[in-house]
Design brief:
heterodimer, B: mainly alpha, 2 domains, 13 helices
Chain lengths: ~100, ~230
């Protein structure tokens, strides 16, 4: 492995860690401020955005499978059951769509 | 402590299986760009950020420049500022070296699972995050290194819906983080902005940051209105 390969790994590792440390420092400050509510709301907003980003631009069977997963998740509040139902729905709809 | 770590390690296994599939695929990509299998493993263990690694390697392959690859990869990781900040309560009281270890082991999957489980059971804390993170970083490192060695023989598991497993898991985690009606508008705003931004061709990681920030803005407005009424 030559120098540029080592440099990509080392610099990206340093950058990734520094970004996490910045989050650690920011968390402590926000929690001690009047904006502490942000830390309560942020997790849900990031997770919702993660879901939305993976659905953006996807065909309708993916959205229907997401709707089924949403229904199972709302009823059961169980990660593995929701995953299983979502994957089964996705695979079934993909098969139906040919 | 060990029991809670074990609980986290076991709870993350289904997601770790999904991550391993992507790990194989990424390992194959990195090997084709010229990284040896041990270099891929080193990269995964030291960076531990899948989307960031994929983009950096793609950029490195197409442009050949180190700085461009690193900047592109690092930019995709900016969402971790908010994610780690939100762990403030979970990590409170830990010695600094454990905090640094925990934030390095934090990825999308074990972070979201920890937050969702903590919303259901407040006793869930740093040991759960560490246990689930340890499994994730080991699986990610191992699968990417193995992918670089034998990735070409892997069948296309995406068509069986394994990629969707993450989406379904995050939907369940969102359910776990649901606290009431005050979240409806901010969540709709976050989802709408994310879909809009990603649909414009912007990378998903930026869409996530934009969506979360827009949702926070909506929540700030609704809080201000509620305070004005009170």
């Amino acid at each position: 492995m030559t120098g540029p390969y080592w440099a990509v790994i080392a610099l990206l590792a340093a950058a990734a860690f520094l970004i996490r440390v910045a989050g650690l420092a920011a968390g402590g400050r926000i929690r001690a401020s009047r904006h502490a509510w942000i830390l309560d709301d942020l997790p849900g907003l990031i997770v919702v955005s993660l879901v939305a980003s993976s659905l953006a631009g996807q065909p309708w069977p993916t959205w229907i499978a997401a709707g089924i997963a949403f229904g199972v998740g709302a009823m059961t509040n169980h990660v593995i059951l929701t995953m299983a139902a979502g994957v089964a729905a996705f695979a079934g709809l993909a098969w139906l769509a040919g | 402590m060990m029991d809670a770590m074990k609980r986290g390690a076991l709870a993350i296994l289904p997601l770790a299986f999904g991550a391993a599939i992507y790990g194989f695929a990424f390992g194959l990509l990195a090997a084709q760009v010229g990284f040896p299998w041990w270099g891929v493993g080193l990269m995964s263990a030291s960076i531990h950020a899948g989307s960031s690694q994929i983009v950096a390697v793609e950029q490195f392959a197409t442009t050949g420049t180190v700085l461009g690859a690193v900047l592109a990869g690092a930019a995709l990781n900016l969402r971790y500022v908010g994610m780690i900040a939100a762990l403030s309560d979970v990590l409170d009281g830990l010695p600094l070296r454990w905090k640094l270890l925990a934030i390095h082991m934090t990825g999308d999957e074990n972070w979201a699972l920890t937050m969702a489980e903590r919303a259901k059971s407040p006793e869930i804390g740093a040991p759960f995050l560490l246990g689930s993170g340890l499994v994730m970083i080991c699986v990610w490192t191992g699968s990417t290194a193995v992918g670089a060695l034998i990735g070409a023989v892997l069948p296309d598991l995406e068509r069986f819906g394994l990629g969707f497993a993450f989406t379904a898991a995050f939907i369940a985690m969102a359910r776990g983080l649901w606290r009431g009606r005050s979240q409806i508008v901010p969540w709709i705003v976050a989802a709408g902005i994310t879909v809009g931004v990603v649909s414009l061709g912007v990378p998903q990681a930026y869409g996530i940051v934009a969506g979360a920030l827009a949702g926070l803005g909506a929540r700030a407005v609704s809080r201000r209105r509620a305070e004005a009424v009170a």
